[in-house]
Amino acid sequence: MHIYLLHAPDFLGYAGVVDMARDHRAVVERGLALKKAGNAILDVLGGRPIHPVNVRVGGFYRAPPAAALRALVPALERARDHALSTVDWVAGFEYPDFAHDHELLALVEPGTYAIERGTPTTDRGFSFPVDAFDELVVEEQVPHSTALHARLAGRGRYLTGPTARFALSQRWLSPLAREAADAAGLGTDCRNPFRSIAVRAVELVYAVDEALRLIEGYEPPARPAVEVPPRAGAGCGATEAPRGVLFHRYALAADGAITAARIVPPTSQNQACIEDDLRRFVADRLDLDDDTLTHACEQAIRNYDPCISCATHFLDLTVERS
């Protein structure tokens, strides 16, 4: 949306921008309603909607009363309808004809669509325990970039994120989310990175479904946290962030102070795949003028939601034509 509105004055003029904003108002309001529903959950659980403060080592400082969570149900039921409408909307986009053959990696926890725990697994049958990531997930500096590139030791580049989760765990989506995925034409394996937005929309349906399921069965615990006395040691974990698997490992001193830490974010894991896709994507579109090609490349990069996508326009493209 930001792209269209920022570019619109160049070819539509002010009146065209107003018409476009009016046409998209319902879409924007739907997105804001979804965001508001998510913020309400965090407010109840975390103490505030952004950067929650209620989480502590061993659990939470306080557990919400059941009534506070049940009060969220009407808004979440509306959010579920909004999420389904979003799937329908993005399914109707025109997607470039493009596909990749990267090895896909996601957490897998049989019986559930893995988010906060699971075994790192690829679509080619390779898996490993989380505590082995320090040796198997290799980050390297490359000559042409300041961004780290990750690879699997002995295997090479891989891709994590929504399409990897979908490929490996779609069978454990909620029935409603599975129906939405089928209606969107996602099939069993989404290899077009441009269609990752459709997978993300399906995951929104699942997230709201899962929130409603958890609220229905929620009973406040006797204690919101267990005591965790500080001691020397090391531990690691992996979770599914929206962008993909996040690996982290920490070493602690006897007083609980962190003495060493390693965090491997999805962006560095996906960087090699992003660059490979971009090379192949550009090769078939060299007939485009520079401005159109720049815009297309920015869209291709944003498919993976890397940290750099926070900038609306960031790509400095130089084309040498012979």
How would the global form be characterised?
A: globular
Number of strands: 10
Strand content: 15-25%
Structural class: alpha+beta
Estimate the helix proportion, in percent. 40-55%
Multimeric status of the protein = single chain
**Biggest beta sheet summary:** 3 strands, mixed
Poorly predicted segments: 1-20
Give the distance, in angstroms, between the N- and C-terminal Cα atoms: 35 Å
Provide the residue-averaged pLDDT: 89
SS summary, helix count: 11
Strand arrangement within the widest β-sheet reads 4-3-7
- The H/E string reads HHHEEHHEEHEEEHHHEEEHH
Radius of gyration: 22 Å
Task: Give the helix/strand layout.
Elements: H1 2-11, H2 13-23, H3 25-46, E1 55-56, E2 59-60, H4 66-70, H5 73-91, E3 103-108, E4 119-122, H6 133-136, E5 137-141, E6 148-152, E7 158-160, H7 162-169, H8 175-183, H9 196-216, E8 233-241, E9 244-252, E10 258-264, H10 266-283, H11 290-302
Parallel strand pairs: 3-7
Antiparallel strand pairs: 1-2, 3-4, 5-6, 8-9, 9-10
Please summarize what this structure is:
Helix content is 43%, strand content 16%. The chain contains eleven helices and ten strands.
Task: Looking at this protein, list some descriptive labels.
322 residues; 3-stranded mixed β-sheet; 3-stranded antiparallel β-sheet; 11 helices; 16% strand; disordered N terminus
